[in-house]
Amino acid sequence: MINIHFIINPIAGEGKNKITKGFLLKHLEADSYHVTIKHSEYKKHAIELTQNSIAEKASIIVACGGDGTINEVASCLINSSIILGVIPTGSGNGLASNLNIPKDINKALELIKNQDVKSIDAGQINNKIFFSNTGIGFDAQVVKHYEASAQRKLSSYIKACLKALQSFKGKNKVVITINDQQIVTNPFLIFTSNSNELGYKVSLTPKASLQDGLLDVLVVPKMNLLKTLFFGVLILFKKHHVLSQVKTYMTKRLTLSIQYQDFFETQIDGEFYKINSNTIHISIIEKALLVIA
Ligand SMILES: Nc1ncnc2c1ncn2[C@@H]1O[C@H](COP(=O)(O)OP(=O)(O)OP(=O)(O)O)[C@@H](O)[C@H]1O
After folding, report:
1. CA–CA separation, 257 and 244 (whole Å)
2. CA 219 to CA 202: how far, in whole Å?
3. What's the pLDDT tens digit per position in 149-177?
């Protein structure tokens, strides 16, 4: 008997997911599966629900939501033998897309039943875990504005981008220590990725792999508005690296430190976080998570 738990974020995407108890019980035969269904009721609640599922001896825990929900569930499963399943019902679904998990809930559930398990890397930023990406600079400001908007859809991201562009200052110098090299920059963006997709098929690190034991890093200094807009257009064609200002690195770890400020504003898997320190350590945890994909 497989003890399978589903943790459903009811507001992920536009809150339109169709995963019901009836649907799950119809597709998961009672003589093979013991099914438990839980709904998150507030931000970070999925962490508590996952910890309870671990205590309840779940062997598969399925995150039903987007990258934020996956982060909350999967962070509890690092280096454990419990397997993560994903039904992508989020807005961007970057990680699920990188893992080729179908958005169709019937197909995603079929995949879970087939139990083809992969071991993937995770990233760590100070004491937090990420599976997709983390960043400081423009992306963190976009997420900050996005979270302040009431809706979770592509148009909200576009509005958040415009607001972030208007208010972006990028005045603080950041020292990046990476691959025995020191880079001093006034960053527009310092983006560190484990996966090859941000969501909505957009990628800043198209060559990143979830299984290569490395983080892909993109460093973009503050540029004038015209060049910044050009950078944005190039991203849509995955050609942004042709700009001479854009530097890319692959590494196992990096450190960021900031002067004249004792905090960083970051995004971690698409959620906004303020880190109260003037130094950030980012590293890879190899083969950290078992996931059905
Ligand atoms: N009942 C709830 N009410 C409000 N927020 C919730 C609830 N349940 C979970 N959350 C929060 O919703 C946020 C968004 O979740 P998630 O990232 O899964 O969806 P998304 O943003 O639509 O998708 P994606 O990240 O792929 O674009 C997370 O921060 C999560 O903690």
Report:
1. 24
2. 17
3. 877 778 888 899 999 998 888 788 999 99
Ligand 1 atom closest to the CA of 72, numbered from 1: 31
Q: Global pTM?
A: 0.93
List alpha helices for the chain, DSSP H.
21-27, 45-55, 67-74, 94-98, 105-114, 138-148, 154-167, 225-236
State in Å: Cα 177 to ligand 1 middle: 33
Helix (H) or strand (E) holding 86: strand 83-88
Query: Which atom of ligand 1 approaches the CA of 271 most closely?
Result: 29
Minimum-distance ligand 1 atom for the alpha carbon of 70: 18
Determine the Cα–Cα distance for residues 125 and 197; give it in Å rounded to an integer: 19
Compute, in angstroms, the gap from residue 89 CA to the centroid of ligand 1.
Answer: 10
DSSP state of 281: E
What's the 107 CA to ligand 1 centre distance in angstroms?
22
Domains and CATH numbers, the chain: 2-115 (3.40.50.10330), 128-285 (2.60.200.40)
Here the tokens at position 24 are 């799950």
Q: Which residues pair with 122 in a beta bridge?
A: 285
Token pair of 37 as six digits: 């269904």
pLDDT tens sequence across 222-271: 999 999 999 999 998 888 988 999 999 999 999 999 988 999 999 999 99
For residue 12, the SS3 value is: coil
* 270 C-alpha to ligand 1 centroid (Å): 10
Residue 95 Cα: closest atom of ligand 1 = 26
**Which protein residues touch ligand 1 with a CB less than 6 Å away?**
9-13, 40-45, 65-69, 72, 90-93, 152, 199, 270-271
